[in-house]
Amino acid sequence: MAFVSIRDLKVAFDGTQVLHGIDLDIARGEAVGLVGESGCGKSVTWLAALGLLPGKASVSGSVRVDGLELIGAPVRSVEKVRGARIAMI
């Protein structure tokens, strides 16, 4: 089982879809770098996964960290994971 598992992650801002179904698995102890052109969705992917997008963003799909679902989870649950178990730079 992957430590981080992202399935069909989609993000829309004011009804305009900007991420179209991201799938990604990261094993425990693995470091991953996302590379791409400016504006291709690298930061939005991780901001969505960590629940850090503004309220006008609509996020769907699944983000699991060590089996815990983050999408739709209570803020307190997500805050326990952010920075302590997973982070972005």
UniProtKB/TrEMBL annotation:
Q: Where are the transmembrane segments?
A: none
**Source superkingdom:** Bacteria
Sorted alphabetically, the keyword list is:
ATP-binding, Cell membrane, Membrane, Nucleotide-binding, Transport
Q: Which GO terms describe its molecular function?
A: ATP binding
Domain ABC transporter residues, every copy: 19-72
Q: Which family does it belong to?
A: Belongs to the ABC transporter superfamily.
Protein name listed in UniProt: ATP-binding cassette domain-containing protein
